Amino acid sequence: MQRKPLSFPKSSPELDHYADIIRSGRYFRKISKSHLKEMLRQSDLITLNADEYLIRKDQNNPPELIVLLEGSLAVTSEAQFIMRLNNPGDLVGELSVIAGESNHFADVISEEQSKVVIFPYQLFKAADDDTEVSVAYLVFSHILAEKLKHATAQSLLKKNVRSQKDSSIVIGILETDKKSRALISSTLGKIWNKANVIQIESFQDFLEKPFENRFDLLIVDPENISGKKSKNDSIQKITDICNSFSAPIMVISRFCRKEENRIFLAELGVKDFLIKPFAEFDLQHALTKLRKDHYRQKELEQVVIEADTDKLTGLANRRRLDEFLDALVTLFPEEKQSFSLIMADVDHFKYYNDAHGHQMGDIVLSSIGSILKSRIRRGDLAARFGGEEFVV
Q: Per the domain annotation, does 196 fall within a domain?
């Protein structure tokens, strides 16, 4: 890894070149070249070889904003691929800059020979009582706003998978002790009899097919986890998997006896924990609370779905369609993923309505909605545009 400061004079062609590259990126297009050049003079240029680490999460690196100039970077955690940065202007490290301290939860490795620009944390720092802030601070605020805009657009496009009201609840019990598994399963049968309970005997069994069962809740005892990784690393691996599909975790273990372990679990987002040995009432009480939280969350999700759904046809409504199209337009300049737009209406619908009445007309519209829902692919959106008009 080669690192050198970019303290060029104002007329440097190389500085102009780097500024042009960064301004071509999605987050920097509205930033003036002169402001960007001023920031670049306070940055460092790093050249990386293929397979060279830029960030290791176990190293206490200073908080820095990293912007890609050329090449490709992979973000990984526990050897699992998370994302790829391969467009000029892509960035990483903004969370550590916001926190003001080393806050790396993943490794960043160069996939090929790459160049990045490093902006130090001090460049974006502002005291609470400051009445004026630097240009760099304003630029950083703009970058965060643009990144949030793109992240929101991507989230809206992924929002098409809708939960089913009658979908069964899947609860996993990751516990090596047979008696404990049986007791927890029996208690679940009493207070959550609609749940599909899956018992997992070993940590290795869970890791072999982590996404085979998309759990609504996972109950874990990490005390007897065995393997090459430390216990804390194994617990973090479990929470990372469950967080990927928003499944809460409950830990029932002697591991919870120490306060430092409970703090560690809470920081990972563990929903609840229970110390072994425990009274059966305590287990029932904790599981009852989790059951209530689960159904309360499902009710909130259903409210959101109904707010986005046309009541007559069951398709997305105009509000949801507008959000979806806005997300497509936001992401298209960078991702260049082509998409098709189909608009259709029902021929002679007004005459049918007048001849047979509005109730029969509603049946026609509802039937068309059912046909569209059954024919579109995952990720596509079918919406009622208004009246007898539809959009796919």
A: yes
Q: Which residue has the tokens 């002169």?
A: 34
pLDDT of residue 316 exceeding 60? yes
Same-domain check for residues 335 and 301 = no
**Tokens 């949030």 found at:** 148
Tokens 């993943």: give the residue.
106
Among 283, 282, 93, 294, which residue's Cα sits nearest to residue 182?
283
Q: Is residue 164 part of a domain?
A: no
Are residues 323 and 298 part of one domain?
no
What are the structure tokens assigned to 111, written together? 């996939």
- Structurally, how many domains does the chain consist of? 3
Mean pLDDT score across all residues of the chain: 83
What is the model's pTM? 0.51
Q: Which domain holds residue 206?
A: 169-307
Residues 30 and 123 in one domain: yes
33: tokens are 């070249």
Strand ranges inside the chain, DSSP E: 2-5, 44-48, 53-55, 64-70, 73-77, 80-85, 91-92, 107-110, 114-120, 169-174, 195-200, 217-220, 249-253, 272-275, 343-345, 383-386, 389-391
pLDDT score recorded for residue 240: 78
Report pLDDT digits (tens) over 47-75: 999 989 988 877 777 888 899 999 999 88
Residues 215, 141 share a domain: no
Query: Are 218 and 292 part of one and the same domain?
Result: yes
Looking at residue 9, its amino acid is: P
